[in-house]
Amino acid sequence: MHLKSILNVVSRIIFTLGLTMFFPVVISFFYNDSHILSYIISSFITITLSLILFFFTKTKIKFSIQDGFATVSLAWFFAALFSTLPYLLTGVIDNFTDAFFESMSGVTTTGATIIQSSINLPNGIESLPKSILFWRSFTQWIGGMGIIVFSIAILPLLGVGGIKLFKAEVPGPITDKIKPRVQETAKTLWFVYIGFTFLQILFLFFAGMPFFDSICHAFTTMPTGGFSIYNESIAAYESIIIQYAFIIFMFIAGVNFALHFKALSGNLKSYTNDYEFKVYFFIVFFISILIFFNISNSNSQFSHENYIKSLFQTVAILTGTGYTNSNYEIWPFFSQLLLFFLMFFGAMGGSTSGGMKISRIVLLIKYSLTEIKRMIHSRAIIPIKIGNRTINDEIIRNTLGFFLIYLFIFVLTSLVLTFFNLDFVSALGASASAIGNIGPAFGDFGPTDTYKSLNSIAKWLLCFCMLLGRLEIFTILVFINSIISKK
């Protein structure tokens, strides 16, 4: 590995993060919450250390694929590490483990929180200063499309290793450039991302949500993050229009951003022509209808209220946003199990959602069916296609490997969590939620609970799972393997 090149690129990314810490300074000044100095010091520490690292590692950038994986892994870790500073220096979180958990949950767009009602925070999340509420949302926003992609877009100096970083960071089994140059691709993705964020802010504001609330929630919807500024999440808003606005934008965030770009370029048929999009739409429609009939039958009330709850939670869990507009733990077990399965699915490849991604699920199903056909017709050459696209063997092997490793990590994490005396429902839910970047889970960590009571070692384990899930597992594993192989 080219260690100097890796650390030099990481230093530039952390420098950018340090600059963004001036945004909560403005919020703190505007709302006069007396935390301005905390953000200035946080920014100063981050920028200073990044500059020191930059000058000590100054070199001509040389990148291999391995280096790309290492850079992405380290950049995400250090982004989470330095993002803890505002939490610690403002005093809203009093220990490093909890601050890191909240921070990692933010930059990986997981949305799991440790913040709950206490002596210092009598009303839980709603007791937090406006500037911290903004910072929580902002960390999810920059983590959504990717700190790496963001850096490629605004730092031309990274152009040398740009494609290697892009492939390491962008989610999904197939990484396509929508522009000839990766830097142009990153900029295009970010323009689309920013455009939808701005559009949601306007939608929410004109639907009756306060402007500050609109900004914070738009910043956590498009990255499918789910941090809310209220303890009750979206259930705090009784407006049907606001809830439908969230459903629409969560669904949009779960779509491959390359399709959005094509549609905005005039090719509206890009959605209907895409096989994965059709499956995505069908899953949302079919599962929400199943849940609607299930919960309506249980309380003998086939109402619009039950329908919007079903649709909202289906989209929120499938995309990994993790918002809640109802306590789904009081729903029938059939509906709860459907939501649990959706935690593994994720939305489309190339979106900001977590999970395995629908394209991988479809590929696994098609591969299984093809193998059955090959057993019957042993001499037949049967290609595997998704839509009109023939999938080569390398992608199939990668997908099978990803699936097996994903399940192995889920099972192993669940076992370790039960060692800390968690019941199996809580352990399974927390594991699926962390690696799928969902946020709320089941049992002790349901939609009305937080992760505050979790054992410290277990919190670090879930932080690792969040990072694995956000970076599609292989990125981290390749990085770890490269370190081990050097020894």
Brief characterization of the structure:
The protein has helices at 3-20, 22-31, 36-56, 65-82, 84-90, 96-107, 130-145, 147-154, 162-169, 182-206, 211-221, 240-253, 257-264, 269-272, 275-299, 304-318, 333-345, 358-376, 393-419, 424-435, 456-470, 474-486; strands spanning 385-386, 389-390. It is mostly helical.
Verbal overview:
The chain has a domain at about 395-485. The protein has a two-stranded antiparallel ribbon. Mean pLDDT is about 90; it is low at about 155-160. It is globular. The longest helix has 27 residues, at about 395-420. Helix 18 (about 360-375) crosses helix 19 (about 395-420). Helices cover about 65% and strands about 0% of the residues. The protein has helices at about 5-20, 20-30, 35-55, 65-80, 85-90, 95-105, 130-145, 145-155, 160-170, 180-205, 210-220, 240-255, 255-265, 270, 275-300, 305-320, 335-345, 360-375, 395-420, 425-435, 455-470, 475-485, and strands spanning about 385, 390. The chain is mainly alpha-helical and about 475 residues long.
What are the defining features of this structure?
two-stranded antiparallel ribbon; globular; single chain; mainly alpha; 487 residues
Helix content: 55-70%
Helix vs. strand class: mainly alpha
Terminal-residue CA separation: 13 Å
- SSE string, helices as H and strands as E: HHHHHHHHHHHHHHHHHHEEHHHH
List the helices and strands and how they pair.
Elements (H helix, E strand, L loop, with lengths): L2 H18 L1 H10 L4 H21 L8 H18 L1 H7 L5 H12 L22 H16 L1 H8 L7 H8 L12 H25 L4 H11 L18 H14 L3 H8 L4 H4 L2 H25 L4 H15 L14 H13 L12 H19 L8 E2 L2 E2 L2 H27 L4 H12 L20 H15 L3 H13 L1
Antiparallel strand pairs: 1-2
